[in-house]
Known about the structure:
Elements: E1 5-12, E2 21-26, H1 39-43, H2 50-60, E3 66-71, H3 79-89, E4 93-98, H4 103-111, E5 117-121, H5 126-133, H6 138-150, E6 155-161, H7 168-180, E7 187-191, E8 221-224
Parallel strand pairs: 2-3, 3-4, 4-5, 5-6, 6-7, 7-8
Antiparallel strand pairs: 1-2
GO molecular function: catalytic activity; iron-sulfur cluster binding; metal ion binding
Pfam family, one: Radical_SAM
Protein name: Anaerobic ribonucleoside-triphosphate reductase activating protein
Amino acid sequence: MANPIFSITPFSLLDYPEKTACILWFAGCNMRCSYCYNPDIVLGKGRFSMEETLTFLKSRKQLLQAVVLSGGECSSHPACHTIAQEAKAMGFLVKIDTNGSRPDRIHAMLEAGIIDYVALDFKAPEAKYKAITKLDGYSKFLKTLKTLQAAAIPFEVRTTLHSSLLTAADIKAMAQVLADEAYPHSYYLQQFFPDTSTLGELENDYRPIQLEDLLPSPIPIRIREH
């Protein structure tokens, strides 16, 4: 098996709600979103083997509460299931950051009881989904959303904002999709910040969407500045 992990962040207070965590960044992604700030991960190769990754996790036991599996797209890797399983066996909580393109693997991990929290990216409304992601994956996103709705774990849905890609009307339509699916949580929006190179080399967003542009909304919306 090829090395699955591109890099490791040994400590984070931001990536698992109210928990200390490390982040395992899986190499590669099946999407090519122009705003992606991890082009080196998306286009790169894995640097850490399964053995090296598990050795690192063992060294974090009793020091951290959680492991975040991110990327790239972690669910694209068969190793994702095994690493989550091993992390749970070591006593860690496990969070998945996913674009929702592999509902089969997310379902299998939920059935195995090896996921504790999921952050699901809602990339775009159906009409713009393929143009923004370069993948015809809207139906799979919806299937992943429905799978998470049926699971007894906390999860969040989030969208990255750039006004050249998504309008306030798009976000309102996406919020309505979530409302129609009876999504019970806040819908998180993340402002685009070009503090590093992106996959599509997007420039700064000089007309960012504001919360007042999105009201009234059928579900609670929160904008994360960082």
